[in-house]
Task: structure prediction
Amino acid sequence: ELRKLPEDFLMGGATAAYQVEGAIDKDGKGPVAWDTFLVEKGRYTAEPASDFYHQYSVDIELCKKFKIDSLRMSIAWSRIFPKGYGEVNQKGVEYYHKVFAECKKHGIKPFVTIHHFDTPKALFDEGDFLNRENIEHFVNYAKFCFDEFEEVYYWSTFNEIYPAATNQYLTGAFPPEIQFDLQKTITALHNMMYAHARAVNIFKEGNYDGEIGVVHSLEPKYPASDAPEDIHAAELDDALSVKFLMDATYLGYYSDHTMQCINEILAVNETSISIDESDFIEMEKAANRNDYLGINNYVSHWVKAYNDESQMFYNTTGEKGTQVYRIKGIGERIQRDDLPRTDWDWLIYPEGIYDLLVRIKEDYPNYQKIYITENGLGYKDHFDDGIILDDARIDYLRGYFNYISKAIDEGVNVKGYFIWSLMDVFSWVNGYNKRYGLFYVDFETQKRYPKESAYWYKFVSETKTII
Ligand code: BGP
Result:
């Protein structure tokens, strides 16, 4: 029997400024750390990416044609404030007005992220979100967006606070490539959660018309065995990657259990953090003001106890079987050979989203509603004379949709889904051979080709039936 989605279920496509726009130094845009970092690495750059800076009308028209109700996108902070604060770059402001006007013309709802991994370089060099002054700059930039872009109804403060902080200071996959620094990691997590709360409070107290939330990357953790030490490892990994952020978002403080786990992790790593208690005033105020929770989910993890020195190898090449993730005092994320995984070693376990959704409803009953803001399959698509048969992606999506629908049946208020990604985009650490799009992009010509999955997605959107 085929499962159904609710009639008003929103079907969207997701992007992020730096991954699609290109034009990284055009029309007054200020630099971001990625610009120089990628040149130094010498593998690929984000220029022109999917050339959304010039092709936005093509992509928005494709949304319309393929029944994609909503476009998740982000504003590049350094297009608006080239140095992160101070003088406004009018050309950047005009560009986003044009994009929103095009959305309106086709009846596509823009779902706009304020920060998606692209802090202006001037602020990044001053410590990014480890520096409390940058919180003020972020908050001012957010307020500027609320005032200026009245066309936008849906706002997200941050994209993926956990990966933003851990890729900078724990895995070292993102600039500034610092590894295993739990003090910096947790400080950045907290500071971004505090910045989120400040922006939410400004939005609500300013009575702006619209909805505001945050997009978290939430990955279920399961113990690798029944052994108590593995159960505890999964609990620690979950406390850092899920509970710390969900507590901050929906309680406005960190529960005793969460802090016990965090302190245990910090102690094993011979460090500590200090949090200014007064931050919780803003955070508690914001906790019941989130209109929605955005969830990005691609993988689930099985965790085994690990107490040796941390070791990390991040598979960025798509060479299957190379990923290593072992953090001292937290655990080792193991591969499960009985489960399918992508060429980048991301385990495919659609049931994980069901467990996650049901758990949020139980643990954080004030969540209001949920949008799945990213989910999709990174794949080496095969292009054959304009035809892209991506059955693997359709299978992946079908699995996820079925479990989302099951969670909705159990009373979880999921209102929509955004595939990552709308069209093929630039991937931060994987470049261009890891494709996610419903639309294939020939990066040489910038021509778009709908994949088989785009037709599947259109059918699901039109009929609300998961085929
Ligand atoms: C999320 C990010 C996206 C996107 C996606 C896929 O973490 O929000 O920006 O990149 O993951 O990840 P990747 O490109 O590494 O495969």
